[in-house]
Amino acid sequence: MTGPAGEEIFCDEHGRVRVKFNWDRYNPSNQESSCWIRVAQAWQATGFGNLAIPRVGQEVIVDFLNGDPDQPIIMGRTYHQENRTPAACRGRRRR
């Protein structure tokens, strides 16, 4: 997730966000890094629902509707080296 320096949340009036794709190695990581991308939500309908906007710096999982690179959509988020899982989850094993 990208955005202006110092911002925790960066989205437009529709809840869309911008990302820095791993293959884009030359352009800066900022609020102009990509087109606006919709974020899939667990529960939504007209006028009500759940809205969880990814934070700047989070790693997101992007899919493309019908495989079309002009229709990206964020399907979820994942932990990574700098954004680690909560301490309570680390080191636990299945029982």
UniProtKB/TrEMBL annotation:
Pfam family, one: Phage_base_V
Domain of life: Bacteria
Gene3D superfamilies cross-referenced by the UniProt entry: Gp5 N-terminal domain
Name of the protein described by the UniProt record: ImpA family type VI secretion-associated protein
Residue ranges annotated for the Gp5/Type VI secretion system Vgr protein OB-fold domain, each copy included: 13-79
UniProt cross-references to InterPro entries, sorted A to Z: Gp5/Vgr_OB, T6SS_Vgr_RhsGE, Vgr_OB-fold_dom_sf
